[in-house]
Write a structure and sequence with these properties.
By secondary structure, the chain is an alpha+beta fold. Helices cover 15% and strands 37% of the residues.
């Protein structure tokens, strides 16, 4: 498994961006990104030279689109153009099914951004009758995302849905419109992709569908659980092989340098790493030695998910620097 940093929310002049696809991918290469998803508003015309741009820059371009409607913005990845203009506030499920039938995934973009009249449609107002249809939620939006007010309720929404038993992934999206000299720190979505798989729509869709994602403004955070001599990674499901409720679990959290020049990071900078679940906070420790390990016998009968979160100082504020998507536990 290799972890690839991606920017999953971008725009070009084919909608409202100011950088061409080539300019953006050239900047992405400079930043150390493996790929981007092109998600222009309501059009896929910007993908016309995607293959040529990838050959020139080495940056993978994943086809996507941002459905930009009066009731919310929805990102589609890995699918061709799917019609959205006939959907009302109670019909989003019908549109999502079209994307899934074409082999793509869907995500809610910036669900708690300011809506009308400042930004009509930016706030999610569609009626969700089946949250199982949603593949991911953009819980971190724009640069310095953990410090932005509209992202806090998005993170809570994702957590609440996990607590209800839904397995929905979380992503970050810079909403990248221009490749200027803005030095504001962005968060990237690291996708866990098998070494043998090419960086293409299929492998990106698979990583998101399986929840093999880490979101970070700094280092790549890795999280594993050991149980009965077996190891489970981000996005995997711990199966229940016995009727025992009390199970001895070992949690391992570590970090890797991201390969992004501006993100070189020392473990000594971290304040703490937190292992949290739907039940409670399970452990808190330091990554000063490069890793943190914790073992405990836990009643797993009502345990649904566990994830790792890294806290540290950013712009003088103690905030979340990175978090993993969960490792899940199968229900009894």
């Amino acid at each position: 498994m290799k972890w690839h940093p991606f920017e999953l929310h971008t725009h070009t002049p084919h909608s409202d961006g100011t950088h061409t696809l080539l300019e953006m991918c050239s900047k992405a290469k400079e930043l150390g990104l493996s790929g981007i998803a092109l998600t222009d508003h309501n059009t896929v015309s910007g993908l016309i030279d995607a293959d040529e741009v990838t050959r020139e820059t080495g940056v993978a371009v994943i086809p996507g689109m941002e459905w930009t409607t009066f009731y919310g913005h929805m990102l589609t990845l890995g699918a061709p153009y799917c019609e959205w203009r006939d959907l009302g506030p109670a019909d989003i499920g019908r549109g999502i099914e079209r994307v899934h039938q074409q082999g793509g995934v869907v995500g809610i973009a910036h669900p708690y951004s300011m809506g009308s009249p400042i930004c009509t449609g930016c706030h999610w107002e569609y009626e969700m009758t089946d949250w199982n249809q949603i593949d991911y939620i953009e819980v971190w939006h724009e640069t310095l995302p953990s410090l932005r007010n509209h992202n806090a309720p998005a993170f809570r929404l994702w957590t609440d849905l996990l607590n209800r038993g839904f397995r929905i992934a979380a992503t970050a999206g810079r909403d990248w419109h221009r490749s200027d000299n803005d030095k504001s720190l962005a968060a990237y979505t690291y996708l866990g992709i098998e070494d043998s798989e090419p960086l293409a729509a299929r492998s990106v869709v698979d990583a998101i569908s399986r929840g093999r994602l880490c979101i970070s403004m700094g280092p790549l955070l890795l999280f594993k659980i050991q149980l009965d001599q077996r190891e489970y990674g981000i996005g995997e499901v711990v199966e229940r092989t016995s009727e025992e409720r009390e199970r001895a679990l070992t949690f391992n959290v570590s970090f890797q340098q991201s390969g992004i020049p501006e993100r070189q990071w020392s473990a000594a900078e971290a304040h703490s790493v937190i292992i949290e679940s739907n039940l409670r906070e399970l452990a808190r420790g330091s990554l000063a030695e490069g890793s943190f390990q914790f073992s405990e016998t836990i009643d797993t009968d009502n345990l649904l998910w566990v994830r790792a979160r890294l806290y540290g100082l950013q712009d003088g504020v103690l905030t979340t620097l990175a978090f993993t998507n969960p490792i899940y536990f199968a229900s009894r």
